[in-house]
Design a protein that fits this description.
With 268 residues, the protein is an alpha/beta fold. The chain contains eleven helices and six strands. The protein has helices at residues 20-28, 53-66, 80-91, 112-115, 118-127, 135-145, 154-169, 174-186, 212-221, 235-238, 240-252; strands spanning 3-7, 32-34, 73-78, 96-102, 198-203, 225-228. It has a six-stranded parallel sheet with strand order 2-1-3-4-5-6, with helices on both faces. The radius of gyration is 17 Å and the shape is globular. The model is unreliable at 263-268 (pLDDT under 50).
Amino acid sequence: MSTWVLLRGLTRDARHWDGFGERLQAAVGATRMVMPDLAGNGLRWREASSTRVEAYVDAVRAQLSQAGLAPPYRVFALSLGAMVALSWAERHGDELLGAVLVNTSVRSLSPLHHRLRPGAWATLLPLAFAPPASARWEQAVLRLTTRHGDADDDATRALLTRWTAWRLARPVSRANALRQLLAAARFSAPRQAPAVPLLLLASRQDRLVDSRCSARLAAAWGCPSAWHPSAGHDLPLEDADWTLAQVRRWLAEGGNVGKECTASRRVW
């Protein structure tokens, strides 16, 4: 039994886990699930986002301490959140029992056009001139991060309604979105794998981040990894069952203390 910390990506917050935290808790038998917001997002939407991943690490650790939740923790993190988890593992690895990193990238191993795919720019640049609280933002994000963006069904419409309402209630400013993007763009991985067990998950059809970014991390560090053949960037939203199965298998096969990334292997 343990505390799991869930970290979201660019401009997203705890609400965007949309039930995944509860499902993960049931799947792994965790005592607690904690879903802190990064500065500029969610409950912290009035704060200025940092341009340094390390600052997000410090803030998350402070939030956990203030809540009376002592280490060690396990982390499940997506995109920018996974960069925060990596920095955490490098700087304070003794606090982590393990981390699952989903669709992430690092500057030192992958080129910019893989870390943010060229097709994503065509979607993101026009949004710079749209009102930050516009429903256009959420429609564009849905298209970039899932296969459901162009669907016209009740579930997709309900999802967009929720996302738009959340943005209207706690809008992420244009400045904060740019600060978070800068933090992600400048983040580099440590030369050696952190002394923390890691599992890398990636989506072959990710329109935002090329899955080769995760492949390079797995190859460089010899970490267990798995690729979803058809999901997009928001893997927990698109296929929670597959994602949870990979986490359970990793834990069963030794994703625990003493099983750091030392030899290349894949789980499927």
